[in-house]
Amino acid sequence: MFVMLRFAAIFALAVSVPAFAQSSGLVTGQVRNAATSTFLEGAEVSVDGTSRSALTDREGRFEITLPSGITTLVVRYTGLEAEKVTIDIRPGARLVQNVALNSGIYKLDAVTVSGPREGSAQAITRQREAPNVKNVVASDSFGNVADGNIGDFLQQLPGITAVYVGADVRSVQIRGIDGALNSVTMDGDRMASSQSAGAGRTFEFEQASLSNIETIEVTKAPTPDMDADSIGGNVNIVSRSAFDRNQPRTFTYSIGGVWRPKYYTRSDNWLREPVKNIGPSLNFSYQDRLGAERRIGIVLTGTYHSQPGGDTASLLNYQPVLTEPYYVLNVNVPRPAGAPRTRLAAGAKIDYKESAD
């Protein structure tokens, strides 16, 4: 009798698995911004009326297995309007359902706006879904205020202090811990760090450029998969990819100028200062996908940024008293300090996708 019961249990288990597979279907697709054609990472795809959901990857892809029949999917993303899609799932079939999200602020005439609002929405979404304490910020959030220097950009984040050498941010401190105790990675791979002076391991950001960067992630609480050599934290630089957008070919550029309301030190080079006290700020980016199946992606970027120099140097003299202020500001003999600074950067990236899907 015991043997017969055991055989019946095994038989019931064997026939239940294929029966479930035949009564369900696979739903896949990509979620993008309808106005800018950018694929949305971290978009939530849920089944209306249930707790089942899935999140999209960097290319906006999602995959979810559902019972056969009529089902309504709800797609949500920060800053965009939620979209409901009704689908008919066939048993054992694979259904491709792409979704384009929109928002009223994008509904203009023939103008497409892709900038700080979109980048901030992506950063907020990834930061909200992170399993640890992390700050994620898009490189377009601060425009050209960063002077093309990643260090200038990082100091805008909470818990980060810039370490200046002259007028440039050379390194950063995370949570007040020395920069030598932080790690820097690009797309998850460790970057070599060596100081320009001495034998330290502090990563110097003044030699890196923002031109080929999509987002920056600052991790303050390490996860188990991270190396245990970053007491302060980790800075992960995420580079741009030609597969981030639905459009296979894009070209963007910006032309501007830099003016500093301080004591000026004129440059005798016309390229650095074509207009008195104003330096040029030029940026361009070209992205394309090549090949018969468009599985090879290329990204080319360039930046030329010249900032007029000159600051007013002053001295802080200590005053040995027990009442505030403990120092007095001495600006009796101001003098110009610093010189024009020019940053020229170029970047290139080639991606290969194993399949067209």
Strand content: 35-45%
- Classify the fold: give the CATH topology of the largest domain: Ferric Hydroxamate Uptake Protein, Chain A, domain 1
Mean pLDDT, all residues: 77
* N-end to C-end Cα span: 53 Å
Quaternary structure state of the chains depicted: single chain
Number of domains: 3
**Main β-sheet: number of strands, strand sense, barrel status?**
5 strands, mixed
Strand line-up in the sheet with most strands: 9-14-15-12-13
Radius of gyration equals 27 Å
Number of strands: 21
Amount of helix: 10-25%
In CATH, the homologous superfamily of the largest domain goes by the name: TonB-dependent receptor, plug domain
Report the uncertain regions: 1-20, 111-117
Shape: globular
Can you characterise this structure?
The chain starts with a helix and ends in a 5-residue tail after the last strand. The strands form 6 sheets. It has a 5-stranded mixed β-sheet with strand order 9-14-15-12-13. It folds into 3 domains: 20-106, Immunoglobulin-like, CATH 2.60.40.1120; 130-239, TonB-dependent receptor, plug domain (Ferric Hydroxamate Uptake Protein, Chain A, domain 1), CATH 2.170.130; 250-352, no CATH class. With 357 residues, it is mostly beta strands. Strand 2 and strand 3 form a beta hairpin. It has 3 helices and 21 strands. The model is unreliable at 1-20 and 111-117 (pLDDT under 50).
Features:
357 residues, mainly beta, Immunoglobulin-like, Ferric Hydroxamate Uptake Protein, Chain A, domain 1, 3 domains, five-stranded mixed β-sheet, four-stranded mixed β-sheet
